[in-house]
Specification:
alpha/beta, TIM Barrel, binds phosphoenolpyruvate, binds manganese (II) ion
Length: 344
Amino acid sequence: MLIVLKPGATEDQKRSLVATAEGGGFRVHPVPDSSRRLIVTSERRAPDPAAFIAQPGVADARRTSHGYELASREVHPGGSVVQVGGVPVGGPGFVIISGPCAVESREQTLAVARQVRAAGAHILRGGAFKPRTSPYSFQGLGEDGLKILAEAREQTGLPVITEALDVEHVEMVAEYADAIQIGSRNMHNFPLLKRAGRAHKPVMLKRGFAATLEELLMAAEYILAEGNSDVMLCERGIRAFSDFSRNTLDLSVVPAAKALTHLPIIVDPSHAAGRRDLVAPLARAAAAVGADGVMVEVQDDPDSALCDSTQALTPRLFAALVADVGRVAASVDRPLLSRQSPRA
Ligand code: PEP
Ligand code: MN
């Protein structure tokens, strides 16, 4: 249920409203950036607006039908902007996230970080904990990988996003990184979502490859309900019957999500395509369809990469992608985010 307070509602009126709701067994969630809106939830029974509408200071109380109360655009019509180490995601500037699939070594990561920085990336990605299909594939460097990412941030000034594969990684990832990624395979890992909701870093939630938009928004709600309001979504391709790409990029989810939620949405054409030649066209399409940014995998020497070598762009191809995406983004009034303080 959404409660909207009157413009002149006092702090005392708000406090007594919260006390009434909590006394009735409900949970009250403040809406970030809006001191006049509250969300009231319960795991057991839906709160009744009639019990709240007559209370002093209340302008409106209404049931929301969808269940993703905090993620709903209704509570935040203007859309939210998530700050990733000072980079605004969801604002007027289109954001480019890039880096290797996995942190394989210090040399590899620092080299790619410098190259994507030079080509115009705003945020560095790289996995230290890798969700691999085979247990015999490279699983990531763990905490050593996080230290390398922190050094890459130090050298390039780019904030860092990296995946927490498990509840027990969240604290460590939050300590080193500027944002926590929850991978496609973990979109339904509810203990992990709840733990990320208690972390003090933004979270990028990737859509499960068989998840509906509603399920994605409900998963985001788990994070928001724990008090973390800095959530970004990511479309990374779903499993369909086509056999020419690794997954099928569902670009229609971008405008559909924009209508339902205030959360920013990033598109990952690399994991969707699984093929180098499809990444740039899909990235351009993502900009055209209204995404807030793209996430693209880059390797210095893709053929020798330990993970996702067939989809990684070379730094040269990535530079061309940034220029092309920039033109498309500008044409839909969403120019690439400008970088204020370039570092080498
Ligand atoms: C990744 O971005 O590193 C990744 C593993 O992606 P996904 O969870 O979408 O497969
Ligand atoms: Mn990858």
